[in-house]
């Protein structure tokens, strides 16, 4: 192995690794080279040919999962000459044995069917023809204007969806809690502490929780499982360049919307903010494509935007609009999208994203202000933490306290993440049945209601009426003119509770109440995230943080009653920031969102940042943020910011995958057909200067995608019948089938066209990015990420293929 | 020419363009090939070999400006064999004639000596050795911590400098205006309108203007001319990747600080915000390098950060800290830096930048709050527009009005830019003398004072005392208990005037006052920007905008007195935004800065964005933003966001520069020495597989920089004496001479070492980015910009050099 690598030397004198005879010698008797397909293999522990075959390149819409990667020797077309010198000994390959059975560093992971987006623009001849036709100023202006219109639409529609969800949740929640309030009033006799009967309200409460939660969980489980959770990890992955199946469909949006309404109304410990962001992404993908897969409807508009590149740019705007609508934070929204997506800072794109965000916030303001009867657009965002009446102030000596809060947040957050991951692993292992998942959601909902009821029943925390912060002050077991502070915490949506913790006057709760509430909510939220329901994790995290932040301030004030600076709302805010930093670690956009939603003065950014950084650093010491953990658990091949430390000293030759299946610039239709049937890679180098069929020894002149090859076969774009198709074939021919390319199985047998040839020079991308085998991995990683690549060809000094690097080669060791 | 290009075909079969014989045939008798230097040339109008030689690659610290690019045939060392087959006919080259006299598309521009930054990390063997040694977790953690410390220092020191400048300006201005106020009081007899004698105050005013302005202009002109103007174009260029000589030196900072103080105190129509940003950049560059060129002092710290890559990352943070300190807008500061610099979104870098920004704002808060006697850190930013007391509200029907204001701003801004450019052209042409430049500044200052005095003298705008917004309400010719509203506008710094226009109650000024004020200030600011003084353009632009915004509101209210919505402060704000959008067009960061400084509600972002976008679009129709105009006027090779439209249909082969001077992997010291003396390119491809001396036909295996070659020669790093230097040579050897690499002239003659050879394999960057001649320019541009390249090698299908592309090849047509 070492010898083999040495052959790909820096001096580039030798390119013997392309010689199958050498390979065979090196690799010993286990090696088999199938000359007639230009394929060879060797026993290389570090190569990962199977990786791309089995994982990244597999598209389960297109290919059977169980089709082994056998190179069926019998199917070799008779017109392809077998290379005599090296191939003769390989003719009697055992057909039953798969060619690729190499050990691979990634094959071990049971990786689902994720693909990369083709973010790279394929600048083939057809594309250039289109460009040339449209070089006119007018066309590019028109395309630009349409782009702007789409972005504005994204902003408006995302906001409208957010409003709809919000209003429905608010209406239903209000009815639910009003009913419960009345039920408590009727069933609990006033001033008669001996007859504490909460049973009937408890049963009602259970009913109001179980029914919506069961409905939502069933929808998610049976109709669209991808809608489970907050959706932020999925949107993050998509923006990072990973195609998650069904993530941006309208059906997904519908299920998600209903799912989040039922879950929040059902009283689960979760928020609606994550799903809002997902909704924005779906809206963007839907509008920009001008067609819907769910409704099998093509509006025949925006056809020019039908590729991964344009679509992802729109989804960027959609995600930003979603964040803006959810938090009322347009700059935060823009940064959220950028933080996940922007490998290249394109000013125009960011400008459009910002406008979509601002329009989204504005639309939401109008609608919700009208709904709430405000006439001055002062309603901002769904997650409205409420502006602080007086500017928050702080003293120098509080900075260490904020840091301690940050450290606490980091510790609690790391523990939460770890606990949640364990619970989810347990779930995955012991609850595989669908009905079990629905039942589990119901059980957690019941647990929440029961714990709340127990707290209300056993804790006696009565406060005088008058400065009550809730709409429904429950008297319960309190005296007249008093209300129950515990019930006040529980008898509203989690969001309203965060607001209460920020803005309630000092002394609104007992220390015991808040302590128990913190613990209960911490456990509940941990059990909830990972259920098969649509729910975000932002609100419960902020709520837990606000609770313990306020609690710490109260405790300290109890010990040092002279400490006047201990404004409980301020500490609740810092606590929320610290807890969010500890759980999410989203860093930049999170900081900006917090700054925007709370509307604090610029001078208060510093305490917030201190808490966030401390929390993030402490948390990072233990584990990763909850979104990243989710992404890892699902084996999504997400690219990190920097190459993993294990890759630091490596070279391209250490991570590349080979052998590489190549295609000749003029190749036979039959070879292409057979090859597509046998292997399911997604990118094939196009080579030239090939002796016989030793394709992998040719000089690289381009790269072609599987989807393009299938279209070529489907539309019979052969050299022999060029006069028929050439006039009407354009780049649009390929765009029309986007995004669901047909499978190779949909191509009929090439009986009469078996001798036809395909000239790829018109279709291939002639400018693939190429690197050398001795280039360092950090550098390659930078190129890969900055340019949003899917395939990176590794060539030797003579421009012959040495291997291929894909996204997955940078992930897991 | 066409035939020649056809040889570099897509099929890549032929690489005949590397054959000098073919070239000579194609190019005809004018062609001369200097075989012994591996150089050849042909009469190609589109090649721009001379470009790099004359402009981009020229470093005037290193090289004579007037040294012609003659390949002196006499100096050919005897030990280098002349290639007989093609070279013999070329031996008698006329020595007096420069080899490179090709027409070039860029040679026409009288381009100053700008170079690119070497942002690309040179991953040579030495670098990898260092990496390997430091692969330990501990080292990388240490480096990370030091980076954080530097960023925090940048934030603090930038803020302290900003504070110092601000406090000095405030103190001096207060004294100046108090003195003038008293002088007016003494010299203008009360209630005696017949005896309107403003002469003595006028003379005092003149004196207080002329002295500081003359002093400042003289300093700028005679000591450091680069400090003229706001500095933002220079910082922008630096962040974009262009090395502007002397831009980040401590001397520059000192002159700039004194310059801005004198100019603002002198009463010129300019602000101190631009210079603050420049100051931040200087601080960052200074601190991060741990040495000062101005003081010839090396602190021997932060040695690992001595390269263009690290330095630019720190300057990014410095610029952000500067913006934050100037405007009190940390998020805007971060975005400002990103907008100009971030070709690659590195989360850690942005995180550090944000922290530097927030710390800068915080430090400034502390110091200025203490200075102003506030104990709650409520002083935010130097450019404090003042928070609006009540949240700004607006109605739907105002949106078109905002748009009209935006269009007005765009028109006025475009006119301002155009006028200013004309004035500056006039200046450049007719005022070449240094003393003339100083006098000009004095004249403009006198003009300002005179116009102000005339306005005060002739306009009778008296307002009742009591709601006066200024510190020095001048009674002047008014009745008792009244003050002069015109004098109030003029008797303060421009910044305070902006604040007045935003927050003064309705009816504080006459329409005539404001109309005249707008016109006068518009003309004054236009005449001021471009003077040889250190001044920013932000404040006067905002001031003009606020003035006409308020004026429009007043006019409309005068016509429709029932229009209650016409809050003059609101319209002043929108007017300022529109005018800023029209003049600067900075778009994203400007929007965010405005949102942050005015502290408006999220709901008011929408009107601001409408005004900004309308202004930008209308302005863009006519000309470019003022900063970009300045950059263009100075011929700075700044890369745009997208390739220029003229480049849309082109291929790499249409823009590449050739011939390319190459070096063999093992080349003679003498050849390298001679080559460095003869040509002043900065990057040389390293080639291998060379037949004889036909270097440009070798296979590319790396790239080496001029600076590296000079260090190699200076330190005698030859193969023959390897045992002496090998142990102690590391990447630090090269870093030590950064950033002022010695000139080739500092290398002694190689008398005894004339036969020594240099092995470049250890020093060269083995992973240069390479593209093909048929790759499209937009794609190449994207690669170039995303990776922050300086040299991009164009290779043919056999990995032999076809040309080189540098920054300048993307600019000007």
Brief overview:
The structure is a homodimer of 813-residue chains. Chain A is mostly helical and 813 residues long.
Strands, helices and their partners?
Two copies of one chain form a homodimer.
Chain A: H1 2-7, H2 20-27, H3 49-56, H4 84-87, E1 115-116, H5 125-133, H6 137-187, H7 199-222, H8 232-240, E2 242-243, H9 250-266, H10 273-289, E3 291-292, E4 297-298, H11 308-327, H12 330-341, H13 347-371, H14 398-430, H15 434-458, E5 462-464, E6 482-484, H16 485-490, H17 494-503, H18 511-528, H19 538-559, H20 568-583, H21 588-598, H22 605-622, H23 626-633, H24 652-655, E7 663-664, E8 666-668, H25 669-678, E9 683-688, E10 699-705, H26 706-714, H27 722-725, H28 731-735, E11 757-759, E12 770-771, H29 777-786, E13 791-795, E14 801-806
Parallel strand pairs in A: 7-9, 12-13
Antiparallel strand pairs in A: 1-2, 3-4, 5-6, 8-11, 9-10, 13-14
Structural overview:
The structure is a homodimer of 813-residue chains. Chain A has 813 residues and is mostly helical. Chain A folds into 3 domains: 145-188 and 196-372, Clc chloride channel; 397-429 and 463-634, Clc chloride channel (Orthogonal Bundle); 646-812, CBS-domain. Chain A is 52% helix and 6% strand. In chain A, the strands form 6 sheets. In chain A, strands 7-9-10 form a 3-stranded mixed β-sheet. A 3-stranded mixed β-sheet of chain A has the order 12-13-14. The first copy, chain A, has a two-stranded antiparallel sheet with strand order 1-2. In chain A, helix 29 (777-786) links the parallel strand 12 (770-771) and strand 13. In chain A, helix 6 (137-187) runs antiparallel to helix 10 and helix 14 (398-430) packs across helix 22. The longest helix of chain A has 51 residues, at 137-187. The interface between A and B is large, with 85 and 85 residues.
